[in-house]
Amino acid sequence: MQVILVKPVRKLGKVGNTVTVADGFGRNYLIPQEFAIRATKENIAKFSSLQKDMEAKNAENKVDAEKVVAAIKSKHITFITQSAADGRLFGSVSAKAIAAELSKLANVPLNYTNVLLDTPIKFNGIFDVQVILHPEVITTILVVVAKTDTEAQDALREYKEGGKKDAQQKEDELSAMEAENSKQKEVTEEEDAN
């Protein structure tokens, strides 16, 4: 199915692009949510006359999103939760909860679709979470999850001072653990063979 995008859609295109999508995606999501219209001759002619207005509105929405990014930049959200001794939460911090706190912080209504979080947060710690305010405006916010305010402040201070392990260090530790496990597995297999 061919559709004309009337709003920008992440990983699909900008306003005015004619794209081919799966029938179900176009019929069940893009068209009802008013992200796109069918690419018929009438709609193409109608859209070409309205395209400048839509592009201007999109540019205005982008500017508004950039203002929100400026308001939340270098800020963080803290969640005080109950957790086990090993840091596992009794429950989780979801995209919906993060969106609610962000709405308070930015004074702009946001919902869970604005927060890019694959799975809910289930451990204490500091997390970089992506926030999509406009398909062309994506920012990252710091989410701190801790047992107490003091613990959250300490973790944040340590993070800002550079106490955070970099990705390479974590990767090295993980590969060392995997190597140790494979050695133990080989030893066990040799003993079983004898």
From TrEMBL:
Renumbered residue ranges of the record's region Disordered: 158-194
GO CC term (a single one): ribosome
Chain coiled-coil ranges: none
Biased composition, class Basic and acidic residues, residue ranges: 158-173
Matching Pfam families: Ribosomal_L9_C (PF03948), Ribosomal_L9_N (PF01281)
HAMAP family per record: Ribosomal_bL9 (MF_00503)
Protein name, UniProt field: Large ribosomal subunit protein bL9
Species name: Candidatus Megaera venefica
Gene: rplI
